[in-house]
Design goal:
Bound molecules: guanosine-5'-triphosphate, magnesium ion
Number of strands: 7
Number of domains: 3
Number of helices: 16
CATH architecture of the largest domain: 3-Layer(aba) Sandwich
Strand order of the largest sheet: 3-2-4-1-5-6-7
Largest sheet: 7 strands, parallel
Radius of gyration: 23 Å
Shape: globular
Low-confidence stretches: 1-35, 130-137
């Protein structure tokens, strides 16, 4: 296996940023739990706090990014701009799987193992169902108990509410903040329902599908589209009586693998089994990720993908922003409703209505 050229991870206490904050002999300006909510913190303070990986400042910065208030948005963007040079130095891993596949259990085992090896792990969740059920966040608190206790781990539940576009922006920007804080493995988790897998695929370097053996129909519960987004498929719960069947499923997928087009140039989808509960197959999975990183970095595919993701994100953002502005203009509402009525009454064509509406909008 080729060694990748990832910069050496330096414990935060030994980092230049941290040293510079304590040089004047006073006590560090970022104690464990500063009462920062009580006052209005400046962007500069936030920058320093995030760079020192002070969790209270990082959490405050994320809250700023999640806010919809315009003054918070402006401040958040200033912050991100200043932190941008410190971002990008991580491996970003997306994990998807149907409810109950074992994602939380897997992340607990995987994340804890990485922390014990000295990596700094941030876990971000995109859970389209959480706003409805509110169950999974509570569940994760108990399922990720060991991970949460690691000093090198940062676990952030899904931002609540809002359209997928908003969740997309907030997750991407939170990921950047975590990188600036020195987290070098970022895990983005999503439940395998809805459109969130494609969104996560577009923000990560490596995408894992965690799945189970199916009863009878091995492909049950797996949307074909997801298979085509993945760099690895792990069949979880390969323990006890289920182990033999899990191995059979893995070999079935391996035989099928040539049918779907690999998403990453030069990389063959890795298919294997694991037991998140027993911690088996976790080290092997990390080796796969490291091999992927080494190979795609040396071929240039890694960097190329990140650039493509940035570009796609730009165009997606433009579209979303335009749409948001168009529909949120109070003056437009009456015109839109009038057009809708005319179209339903057969008095106007859709194309004419769109042209008229855009003319109104541009004149505002
Ligand atoms: N036997 C066995 N059980 C497992 C394994 N991994 C997870 N489980 C169990 O499966 C159940 C669901 O696991 P979770 O980790 O909560 O699954 P999840 O994918 O996070 O589920 P959602 O958050 O609902 O999407 C729990 O009862 C786990 O204890 C495994 O490797 N083997
Ligand atoms: Mg879960």
């Amino acid at each position: 296996m080729k060694e990748e050229k990832r910069p050496e991870w330096v414990p935060i206490e030994q980092s230049e940023a941290f040293a510079s904050t304590i040089m004047d002999g006073t006590k560090p300006p970022f104690p464990e739990n500063p009462p920062i909510k009580k006052r209005n913190i400046s962007v500069e303070e936030l920058v320093q706090g995030v760079k020192c990986n002070d969790r209270a400042f990082l959490a405050q910065a994320i809250t700023l990014i999640e806010s919809n208030a315009q003054k918070h948005k402006d401040k958040a963007q200033q912050l991100l701009k200043l932190l941008l040079p410190d971002t990008g130095k991580s491996i970003r891993i997306g994990i998807t799987g149907v409810p109950g596949a074992g994602k939380s259990t897997f992340i607990e085992a995987f994340g804890t193992m990485l922390c014990e090896q000295g990596y700094k792990v941030a876990v971000l969740a995109i859970d389209p169902s959480s706003t409805l059920t509110r169950g999974s966040i509570l569940g994760d608190k108990t399922r990720m108990e060991r991970l949460i206790q690691q000093k090198n781990a940062f676990v952030r539940p899904s931002p609540s509410g809002g359209a997928l576009g908003g969740v997309n922006r907030r997750t991407r920007e939170t990921m950047l903040l975590c990188e600036a804080a020195g987290y070098n493995v970022i895990i983005v988790e999503t439940v395998g329902v809805g459109q969130s897998e494609g969104m996560v695929r577009d923000m990560v370097d490596f995408f894992l599908l965690l799945t189970l053996t199916g009863a009878g129909d091995e492909l049950q519960g797996i949307k074909r589209g997801i298979l085509e987004l993945t760099d690895a498929i792990l069949i979880n719960k390969a323990d006890g009586e289920n182990k033999v069947q899990a191995l059979q499923t893995a070999s079935l997928y391996t035989r099928m693998a040539h049918v779907f087009q690999p998403i990453t140039d030069g990389w063959t989808v890795n298919i294997s089994t694991c037991s998140a509960l027993l911690g088996e197959g976790i080290t092997e999975f990390w080796q796969t990720v490291r091999m992927f990183e080494a190979e795609t970095k040396s071929s240039g595919v890694f960097e190329q993908r990140r650039l493509q993701q940035q570009k796609k994100w730009l165009y997606t953002s433009i579209r979303e922003e335009l749409e948001q502005r168009f529909f949120s203009q109070p003056e437009m509402r009456a015109h839109i409703f009038a057009c809708e009525r005319d179209i339903l009454q057969g008095k106007k064509t859709v194309t004419t209505a769109v042209a008229e509406l855009l003319t109104y909008y541009e004149a505002l």
